[in-house]
Amino acid sequence: MAGVAGRLARLWCSGALSSPLQVTRFPALQLHLCGPAMRASQKDFENATNQVKLLKKDPGNEVKLKLYALYKQATEGPCNVPKPGVLDFINKAKWDAWNALGSLPKETARHNYVDLVSSLSASSESSIQVTPAADRKQPGSDALVVTSQDGITTITLNRPDKKNALTTQMYHDIMLALEAASKDDSAITVLTGNGDYYCSGNDLTNFTDIPPGGVEEKARSGAVLLRDFVDRFIDFPKPLVAVVNGPAVGISVTILGLFDIVYATDRATFHTPFSHLGQSPEGCSSYTFPKIMGPSKATEMLVFGKKLTAREACTQGLVTEVFPDSTFQKEVWVRLKAYSKLPPNAMRISKQVIRNTEKEKLHAINAEESNILRERWLSDECMNAVVSFLSKKAKL
Ligand SMILES: CCCCCC/C=C/C(=O)SCCNC(=O)CCNC(=O)[C@H](O)C(C)(C)COP(=O)(O)OP(=O)(O)OC[C@H]1O[C@@H](n2cnc3c(N)ncnc32)[C@H](O)[C@@H]1OP(=O)(O)O
């Protein structure tokens, strides 16, 4: 903690504050701190010291340390008190932050303090209850809803009348939402569905939108999109939780192997009917499923299309915990809210420790699976299955 604060404060003084999170959360800071020496009056400073007590939102320890350091520098000048002992964590962190300001002039510290408080006041006023992160790019349609609350960013599939089948636009929007969530100030990210289904997988009408380059071109661009989409899940840096509110089909099941936690209602089922559709596994499931449940159980699912109940999926290790449908939402969100209060950096780092050793392998598997699917999509088996679904002759 002290190290982080110290480094931040040093970067701050040197004009190299470049973390994307800091830049997007405190644009005013980025503009003013390292710019030409503008002056804040003593009165502005006193107002700011009062304003800081009225902040609606706790700005977090790193920001509080910055405020402390700037206040001390503005009122007492450079740090010249003895360094606290290593076990006196809090005072040492404060000392480090102050000391890192070096010989920053009192007036500059005063000005930076005023600027920081004003950016905090603005951000605390704009994030009251359920709000999308201020700088989040909004999805291109209402088929995806993204909200941030209580340290949790929730991405909700919102096509209940189509069982939340994924359109091409939705793949793009989910990628955008994941990118924004990876940079916002939430601790945890959740994917869930609206309505009775979690997701019925790829929208099979995606196959009907044939570009001028024909079906080969369609298959090529589909494989690129699939690979990019799955890459985002492989690389996602924060704890990623699936709240499986109902049946799940196809790609919505296979990518579960890339989530950190999967909570499911006892109404959920897990179905990967790839052979029925003339297709092959994706989402790195050809690797994650055998690893999670052993090769023969994985084969039952991925090759023979066996549909698992939530309890079976939990026994196989694909699902973390199953909840009765009547209490599912309540129990899961209470649990997630508690988790979201844990130190976010520690959670990110622990996730990295657990997942990073496999990343390269997963990217290679994703590339291979996407290539194989590109060929499958051109096969008679696949085309017949899609035509059959579209002409309403077939259902899973
Ligand atoms: C970038 C590309 C990446 C591709 C990656 C590869 C991905 C692979 C997969 O995901 S494979 C799995 C594909 N999904 C399916 O095959 C499911 C097809 N749907 C069904 O079998 C059924 O609809 C059901 C079992 C999910 C639900 O049945 P039921 O409860 O009887 O509801 P309806 O069938 O009446 O469905 C209501 C409404 O939704 C439409 N719909 C449902 N799922 C899909 C879908 N996957 N694609 C397109 N449309 C779907 C269904 O047609 C109904 O529409 P309607 O009301 O008739 O207009």
TrEMBL record:
Entry annotated with the keyword Cell membrane: no
Entry superkingdom: Eukaryota
CDD domains: crotonase-like
Chain ranges of the ACB domain: 41-126
Enzyme Commission number, as recorded: 5.3.3.8
Function: Able to isomerize both 3-cis and 3-trans double bonds into the 2-trans form in a range of enoyl-CoA species. Has a preference for 3-trans substrates.
Protein's name in the database: Enoyl-CoA delta isomerase 2
UniProt subcellular location: Mitochondrion; Peroxisome matrix
Organism this protein belongs to: Monodon monoceros
Catalysis: reaction(s): (3E)-tetradecenoyl-CoA = (2E)-tetradecenoyl-CoA; (3E)-nonenoyl-CoA = (2E)-nonenoyl-CoA; (2E)-tetradecenoyl-CoA = (3Z)-tetradecenoyl-CoA; a (3E)-enoyl-CoA = a 4-saturated (2E)-enoyl-CoA
Gene that encodes it: ECI2
GO molecular function annotations of the record: delta(3)-delta(2)-enoyl-CoA isomerase activity; fatty-acyl-CoA binding
Pathway this chain belongs to: Lipid metabolism; fatty acid beta-oxidation
This protein's UniProt keywords: Acetylation, Isomerase, Mitochondrion, Peroxisome, Phosphoprotein, Transit peptide
One Pfam family named in its UniProt record: ACBP
UniProt record similarity statement: In the C-terminal section; belongs to the enoyl-CoA hydratase/isomerase family.
PANTHER family in alphabetical order: ENOYL-COA DELTA ISOMERASE 2 (PTHR43684:SF1), PTHR43684
Keyword Acetylation in record: yes
